[in-house]
Design a protein that fits this description.
Four copies of one chain form a homotetramer. The first copy, chain A, contains ten helices and 14 strands. Chain A has about 425 residues and is α+β, with helices and mostly antiparallel strands. The N and C termini of chain A lie far apart (about 50 Å). The interface between A and D is large, with 36 and 36 residues.
Chain lengths: ~425, ~425, ~425, ~425
């Protein structure tokens, strides 16, 4: 059963009795599913249909795939004689679960003009009714675990809907906006300070009873050298200094594969930046505007983050260095719920601890995405959720302005290939202790 | 002026007085533009947005580009202080007119989720009103000539809308249908006969006063060897014999580039054919169904047409051979107006002359698309309409089941590259006279 | 039998008795085969091994393939119990004859470091001895015909050896030279004149009893419009004016596919030209040097030739227009035997007829490479020699500075795809008669 | 200075006095350089010229580049007024040192038919004489350090010469052999046992005074969980069971990127394996022969190694797990000096410790290639040697049958991207302790 893997390895059952838990689940299910609908609301059926690149998916596909997840992993096993909403969807909206069966080819997701957005909305309603029915009945812990996983899965796709729409709109010469802009006062970010840690044996990874993804487990010990973490994110002003110092033309600052990417892709600045009237402009989900120097830099690849750190005489943090500080911080910040959908300037000076750890931008770490010691993926199809991607990617930490708050944890491990730039990804520096 | 090129070289003005001509134009303008809307009616906004391959365009783009043509080539020069519906459209819906200015990249036409279909419909209405206003006023012959060209241009895109939607639907595992199917009785196509021509000096190309494209001109003489043209199109039954004789595995039947295409593309049958339950099936605009042996074969490339002819101990006709017989036939057949949108079995035996010359399928000829002797493209942007494509393509003749009847002529020259298969393209054989 | 196709359609046997003919063949066989060796002599084994692009072949491969031709088409059928020099060569050095069997993939020809050049020389000697043995015995006319074809085939590869080595050396930053340069006096090419032809019925194609390729046959009549042919080739000075007029940045001068090629390939000048010290330089087989204004322009594609002609207010000749004048001229000029291996400035004014028709550069025509009326390829493997390439290419006429004189005829049809530039290809203008 | 990084961080000078050290260096220099020549001896100039794929280089390039290393990093800085052997070589044989200047494009290394092999041999002699001259004079420790690095660099290229030639020969249908085969008795490899380690704090990385690469430093501590390492390498017999169990068709066994590679590359077995006469065959440097079940499996990618481990219910070792056992073993085995140039069956049962740790095949680990804590690359050009490749690759340990013995250490970190198969790369299993 998949259950045991999403829970702690010790197999301890949650203390909450099942009926109360199901009750709570029904509320959360409604809430999370409604957020998805709300995020899609400003988009036309046409906006929801187009796939802008193989890495991105149409919003319609996100709406359907998250529903498919509940249909496939909850309704099919739990409802006797369940008849699928439409049998073809089993293949059409399967992302990458080979154990479930074949998949519609990823780069072809944008060819599916039908089913239309209306039919996908019906699909969502249909599955919602059946899942909520189930939650009123006696549902075992294993099924509840999968529903919980499904809700976290849906939250991941909420963020992807926003980043994928942003990419789509960036290809449109009309420069459409997803939402109105909310003007923010100009800030003067505080000077960067170093937050020190003495090193030693540290416990990392998820160890409690509540939900986490399998890749955050098991909790384990590590020996950490003394280090320091930057007190805040790198800003656009700082990144502009890097650009103006000719960094995109200086191979000695780059990893070899990064230098190749700069040349092949013609990178000269972060994604969505362009020069106009002698100034850098950028695209936000509220439309185009000049680059603000006080905001955290965003939409950079690992290669650019790494080159920036080298140029700054510093380095990127390891994911564990980040987690050590993240575990002490409140899980809050400029997340999806602020509604800004863009990284926010840091105005207030923090106390001793690093600011902006959660929200704003996913922070590239130098850590390749690899299994923790004694990691075991769940058995069955859900074992494909995380484990098979543990190569050729790097870990990002902390969540972004498009991540729901309740989705985040200090132990959360996001991962993307080093060339990816369309996520809200930014830079925090780290340093060896003197 | 572009006018002179679209008219006869002798420059004779049409006999019809301008006001009557404008009157007639208003009626035709309304008719042709309405057909376009009717063809788009069964499609959702999502269907109209997606681009299935770089060769094809979204229906929304066709709707807008044909409108752009009138806005750019009629309203801008003819209406004082004309303000464009939306200035960005000048680039967005320019297909390939470098003289007009830059173009939105062709393979990116499917990224344009906005403007939405509704806005494009408004664009059409806006331009229609202004063009019809113009037609009520005193409009010169040159402008009328361009409107006439614009209507023929729109008819070309009517056919492309259908072939492009068919291609899009072919990529959808749900196999949607564009329209209901109209069942036809099974036919027994008559045996193929040869219609002979003694050769000699022939006049070809368009020579009268009415509309033709520049590439049909000038009318000129040629020396033609004796030849014979097949009395009807090649049928699916005949093409199946070719397949079953292993033709797709026999290099000696193919042009060298054709054999490469067979291998690189994995061709084993015409486009849209697949094996299912031990039988060949195909996709039609009325949905999937078994291949009918009595229908003309369709969706073949020049390479397949040429290989079939070689296998059959015959050859493809030269475009002039086709035109000699086409010029004697009535311009009618299974064209757009029959509503079948699929080639139709030949039931009735013809008299002495070839059947199915017009409609059903565009007939590949062996003639590379090249200028006629002393061909001159129009000056200005409209000189880019045809002339610059006169390389790497072959001529097809006769129109298809998706071509409007009033669009066709015996001198009409369609052209596609030899690997193209998504048009309604088929095969008629020719032969040297004994 | 292949014989009948390489001879006249009427099948008339040559008047020369077979033994005398064989005697003559032995002499010519030795001569032609020796030229090949001479051309390879300045090259190291390493030079002979590398393939610089899929369109080009290693010299070693040319040496072997021309030998394979005699082994496969003469020794195997004519020598009882013939044992191949090395059985693997049947596949390894088969260019494109599917009828003979599989072929080593063309882009992999440069991977064959073994057999080494020495072994290929042994292979040549071995086959030469056996063919010359045969020529001392009673050999039928059909076999002699194939030997004759093999010698013309070898001459084609002599030219390709030079163009392929030139391309290879162009990729070497050391800029090696194939031979010493022979300085030529500066010329002042005469002004371009037009040589007129009144049009009418013309006979074209090869009609005599001697050797021609199948694609030059059958001789047939055509109706030709009045036209004029330029009295000489376009010079570098003239082509420089085209460049300096911004032609490579002006889409209106180009065929659509040509404009794409300009952009995708970054063309700014003919192949092998580059700017250095504010002057254009070029590569010759005698090494790099400044571009001479008085030489015929060379290494241009059909697209560049066509754009130049349009820019010059003129057009390219049809192949038949060229042939009409070619048939009246002496088959001589700056061909392989002059040893220059580069187009030569025209110094002496010609009489009334066009100069430089033969030699210097292959002249692009506007004629797609297509079969003549009633063309029939030979049966069997040799039917693949020409016929299967009759699509997607254009005809070039007249031969170049790398073509053996005895290889040329007025009816000779060379052919390359429109983007090809590594052959010695240049431009002659034509014009409609006033 | 580069020196300090290649030496211990503490900066301790070697105990050996400089003159004696130089003396020793002269001997080793001669030896190492002579091995390179010996390895190239069986190859023709043509063999040495061809580049079989962008990942591989021509042997001639290896011969020149290793020489360029000494010329650029030793002769240029140390010899007053040094005049380069040929100035163009600075660019032509620069592999990837941006700090030194531009580089001839890697995929174009095979285009360099000139300089010929003879000239490269002269180049080697020239540089050897100058370096040996220097070694007779008073040379500082920094320069000696760079010579030492250059010798280890040359040994790396000795191995690459063999793997690159093997790849080249694999593309030749004549299946050439690099050397004669030495028949080995059939072995019965002992059953796989687990060698346990209790975990705890471990010191890893290079810590002594002698040579190591910068990426092996600094020596540092780690916390290691209890684990077990397999007593021997995975054999062909075992890997055949994996194949026969349908593993190449079972997505659940593979990393996602690995499954993509299987499909895109059509992998069905290790590189150089093919079916013939109902048996698997493979290519060795002594030519083709049937796959021996008793040999260690070789030429597998990380993806195949990882899938095999998963199939076997086990996992790959982390690089530190390997190093812990490697540090206790003698640095010996089936290395270059045995002359087999192929992995060797394990006949003799080992004692308690793992066998085959050094030699035979490079062992894939699960460890992404990343810097050790507080790693600092050398300053200057030699900082590009290792550091800039620390992304998108995985670590391999232990050396292969093509690695010189004196080149290996327990701390040695080799690295390749996960899809690479042309190195002698194989599999050792590891396991969590029970």
């Amino acid at each position: 059963l998949a259950q045991s893997r999403h829970r702690s390895r010790a197999g301890a059952s949650p203390a909450v009795p099942a009926p109360a838990r199901a009750n709570d689940f029904a509320r959360r299910y409604r809430e999370v599913r409604a957020v998805t609908q709300t995020l899609a609301a400003p988009l036309s059926a046409e906006d929801c249909t187009v796939q802008s690149m193989p890495d991105a998916s149409p919003v319609k596909w996100h709406l359907a795939h998250t529903t498919w997840f509940f249909e496939t992993f909850v309704l099919e096993p739990e409802v006797a004689d369940y008849r699928p909403f439409r049998p073809e969807f089993r293949t059409l909206f399967n992302s990458y679960y080979n154990t479930v069966g074949p998949q519609h080819a990823r780069p072809q997701r944008g060819m599916i003009s039908r089913p239309g957005l209306d039919e996908i909305r019906d699909y969502r309603s249909h599955v919602d009714r059946r899942v909520l029915d189930l939650l009123e009945r006696d549902l075992g812990g294993a099924a509840l675990d999968i529903i919980e996983l499904g809700l976290h899965h849906e939250q991941q796709h909420q963020e992807l809907m926003l980043t994928d729409v942003k990419h789509l709109f960036s290809l449109n010469p009309l420069r459409p906006a997803y939402q109105e802009s909310a003007p923010l006062a100009t800030a003067e970010p505080p000077a960067l300070r170093w937050c020190h840690h003495p090193g030693g044996i540290a416990w990392v990874g998820y160890g409690s009873d509540a939900f986490s993804f399998d890749n955050e487990r098991p909790r384990h010990r590590l020996l950490v050298e003394p280090f320091a973490l930057a007190s805040r994110l790198v800003t656009n002003a700082e990144f502009l200094a890097f650009i103006e110092d000719g960094a995109y033309q200086r191979p000695e600052l780059w990893l070899s594969d990064g230098w190749d990417a700069v040349h092949k892709q013609g990178w000269r600045a972060p994604l969505y930046w362009w020069r106009e009237d002698d100034a850098w402009h950028t695209l936000t989900l509220a439309g185009p505007r000049p680059v603000r120097p006080d905001e955290p830099v965003c939409h950079v690849s690992l290669y650019e983050a790494d080159a920036y750190a080298r140029w700054a005489g510093s380095r990127l943090p390891g994911e564990i260095e980040w987690e050590i500080f993240g575990a002490r911080a409140a899980v809050d910040g400029n997340v999806l719920e602020t509604g800004l959908l863009h990284p926010r300037p840091l105005a207030v000076e923090n106390s001793d601890s690093p600011a902006q750890l959660f929200g704003d931008v996913w922070e590239w770490t130098s850590s390749p995405y690899a299994p923790y010691p004694r990691y075991q993926p769940p058995s069955g199809a859900l074992g494909e959720y995380n484990g098979k991607f543990m190569v050729n990617q790097l870990v990002l930490r902390g969540g972004s302005c498009a991540t729901p708050r309740s989705h985040l944890r200090a132990t959360y491990r996001n991962f993307f290939p080093p060339h990816a730039r369309w996520q809200f990804s930014g830079i925090r520096l780290a340093s060896d202790a003197p």
